Fold this sequence. Notes:
This protein has helices spanning 3-30, 66-74, 80-97, 102-106, 139-155, 201-211, 222-231, 242-247, 312-316, 323-337, 343-350, 375-384, 438-446, 452-461, 474-482, 485-494; strands spanning 56-60, 110-119, 129-136, 160-165, 168-175, 183-190, 194-198, 236-240, 259-269, 272-281, 305-309, 355-360, 363-368, 388-394, 397-407, 417-428, 431-435, 468-473, 502-512, 515-527. It has 529 residues and is α+β, with helices and mostly antiparallel strands. It has a 20-stranded antiparallel β-sheet, sandwiched between helices. Strand 19 (502-512) and strand 20 (515-527) form a beta hairpin.
Amino acid sequence: MRARPFLVAVLAVAAALLSAALAGWWLLWNHSPLALQTQRLELPLAARFVPRTAPLSLHWLVAPDQPAAYARAVARPRQRREAAAAAERLRDGAFAAAGLDYRSELAPWLGSQSSFALLTSAEAKQPPGWVLALRSRDSAGARRFLQRFWQTRSLAGTDLQISSYRGMGLISGRGALLGQDPQPLATALINDDLVLIASGRGVLEQALDVSQIDELNQAASEPLQQAVARLGQGVALLTARPQAMEQWLGLPASDDAEAIELVAALAPAGAGVSVDAITQLREPLPPLPALPAELPQQLQTPATSLALLSQPAQLLDSEGANAWARLLAPLLQRALAGAAGPLPQLVAAADAGPLLWADQPEGWLLATRPDQPAMEPLQAELEQQGFSLSPLESKGLTVQAWTRLQSRPVKGNPDQLQAQLAGARSQERGWAWWGQGLAVLNQQHEGRQLPQQRLDQLQALGAPTAPLQWAMDGGTAQGLLRRWQPWRLLNTLASTPLTPSVEGAALSLEPDGADRRALRLRASLQLRH
């Protein structure tokens, strides 16, 4: 019986030590830059001053110095200083675009929340205004900033007006932000720790108006709150309406588009960045069958790009009544148009799915069900373009190839003829394979190596049944990003080329759970570290 108190004491000490260890681990993790990977997504205080109708808003939810600390933590030892410097340049460039010098004006006091929003003007011909919300670590820092902000501009000849609106003090005038021409500016201090800077008194008053009416601001928006809860984690929250999707994000949208609003969370993921977004739609999406799990495993060769589509014919029918097609057909058609020869477009447009589309250095490679698409209409279309079908044997593989003769004049022989190949088809392991040439089909036939890098990228997205999935290597991703407007803007803000650091990207699209009026986008960007 005497041993029992002793055992109880030992267990109590062990439990206390374990609790202390767990508490210490929790404190270390939460103060570690790596904790940004699991940062909880939330609506910041500034969301109360952003109208629900704002074309674009971006809420940054961590301290401005944390991305540089994170980049340093995940980079290789020899590249830590360079990685941190790149993150700092991007941060400084973003604030410089807003007309502020981060190091001299903001670093001493700026806290963990910064927001930017475009606001529509009451007059149709007027450009949208903007409001910038900066959360201070303490009230003294915010007040000192505003004092110096207007003192500097007053010395430059700005006439200041001090007034009151809705019980809050406003300072307005016509001054110049860093490196810019004089323009209307207005500021307000909210609860001693939130600084609002707007492109004019009218814009600032609009932000203050919506803060008083829950039905008008983002903070009280139930759909936005639900989207934030579903997204769960992130260091930044982006919202965009159709006009901003097209103008600022380079997405195919307009005022009468299918999409109503985009809500996206950005988070660090290893050495890269992940994006998780929900797009609210005007009408429900029709159901699409899930992709078979074995389809990506059928590819037996490495690939620079691997795309999986559930029902390509339905997704490409832009003239039909399918909301999927109205959203995705322009993008898919543009991608297929870049493939060599007419066969990829013809196969995809007639294929009921599923479809595997891989790119390799030797050319494109497609996989479909053996009975998809129907051969008769496809053969008739190719014959109209002058291609004839020829059976071939290549390294023990039976192949159907579509070729036509073309006149290619060469020096000394103006009547030289050359065979042009539209593509070739073979069948094995229960799938039909369509290739740009015989070399691609032979490589698939003889290959025993899965495209593991592309498969790992798709698995990391966590959407194995999404009806559209796409993974690509660095070269393919760099080519796409170079043409994307937001990426060009980031390069400008960073004052250095970011494209060479891209090592891969992946994305998936699917309905957001049972909600057929919401489209879920998951994307990842892998960067060199």
